[in-house]
Amino acid sequence: MGMFAKARPEDAARVLPNHIGVIMDGxxxxxxxxxxxxxxxxSKGAKTxxxxxxxxxxxxxxYLTAYAFSTENWKRPQEEVDAIMxxxxxxxxxxxxxxxxxxxxxxxxxxxxLSDELVRLMEDAERESAGATGMTLNIAINYGGRDEIxxxxxxxAEQVKNGRLQPGDIDEAMLSSQMYTAGQDDPDxxxxxxxxxxxxxxxxxxxxxxxxxxxxILWPDFTPRQLERALAEYAGRNRRFGGV
Length: 244
Description:
The protein has about 240 residues and is of the alpha/beta class. It has one domain: Decaprenyl diphosphate synthase-like (Undecaprenyl pyrophosphate synthetase, 3-Layer(aba) Sandwich), CATH 3.40.1180.10. It has helices at about 1-5, 25-35, 40-60, 80-95, 115-130, 145-160, 170-175, 225-235, and strands at about 20-25, 65-70, 105-110, 135-145, 190, 210-215. Helix 2 (about 25-35) crosses helix 3 (about 40-60) and helix 4 (about 80-95) runs parallel beside helix 5.
């Protein structure tokens, strides 16, 4: 536990991504392997999420985006959806106990399908952590990359319709300004545990030049040690951004 208790002196000198995205996958399979209800996997995954957030903040990561619930996850059994939403509510109700972490919390995704109580708790967490100067944590709830791009396009189309904008004025920077992550660095590294090899509609616009690392471990078993393995692999990659 020693190396996970606090940031190490050499952390400041090593190559770290500014922004990490993580697809928290494998909770249900983790529970099934143990003969447990799927909600128990989500509960264990929530504990992993808290541990990884704290660790990323300690080592100096500027942004962490965690994929908690996608626009497609509504297709899951209602009992499982309810369990995920209840875990999120418990996390938010307990959020005030983590003020000392100095983490700014933001939520990205479509809030219109969420309960009024959940939206209120999300807004409270964002407001109470707004002054934090440490890591920015984006929690993606009812989020989909394609949906995000459609919303950005509609916003710009509305501005063209109202005469505030000409179609020729629209460029990549302007479209980026309409994304949920506007003003943040794009992700340098996206990690997907669970043994799956797909992006699952996560940060499609922002991840154009992200490094992907896929790991054959279920999210509830993901620890700072696995994160360090991913960071070591990231540091060894040659990021050319289309150059030579």
